[in-house]
Amino acid sequence: MAFLRDTSGPQPFLRAPAVVLWLILALVGAHALRVFEFPDLKWIAIYGFVPARYSSTYLAQYGANPGSFLDQALPFVTYIFLHGSWTHLAINCIWMLPFGPVVARRFGPLLFLVFFLVCGIAGAAAHLVCNWGSPAPVIGASAAVSGLMAAAFRMLPPDRDSTRRPLEPIFSTRIIIWTVLWIVVNVIAGVTGLGTGGGVQLVAWQAHIGGYAAGLFLAGSVDMLARPRGPSPPQA
Q1: pLDDT along the chain (236 residues), means of 10
Q2: φ and ψ at 3, to 5 degrees?
Q3: What is the pTM of this model?
């Protein structure tokens, strides 16, 4: 990739913006808290994303109350910070390192975090639509990281000077190729069961695609918010 070609100094992921490193630290801290303080899988059932919680038959089928509006809204965010193992966590953190810095430098810390969460929420929504009524919890930051990856694709190569180049158009050849490849890989994962199955889904391919789509299509709007306003044109 173009942003990895410069070998004159530390690569971008080795000098990542502080917000990316703090986000990774938050993911690590959340996983450590779950593993050492709340090892019971009930924690995942409550704060993981369970599509069945939003089904009208949830109470009758599972004998559990889906809870208040807040109880049902929180898992759209909290599932991002839960991981099934240290390996699962490490994969998502390493995956974030090439793409998170590209997005963080362009959007700034606050918009970067909001964008990350929105992509994760979009991934959960996509998974909910495709798996309505499923009792299997979904956990992990991969949908949110997929959104960062999509946005980074539109930003590459990063700016080398003070001029901010426009984002790559969504329907450019490069973006279409990357998008098709990403969809194919995830569909294969879904059809073959690669990385999924059992009670807890560590890799939810529909969530990946949902997060990626959010990152791809929302990057332009967020970039407009992040773009500094230029000086006003001179008066006649």
Answers
A1: 42 75 97 88 87 76 69 94 93 95 95 98 96 90 97 82 76 95 88 55 81 97 80 44
A2: -75, -5
A3: 0.85
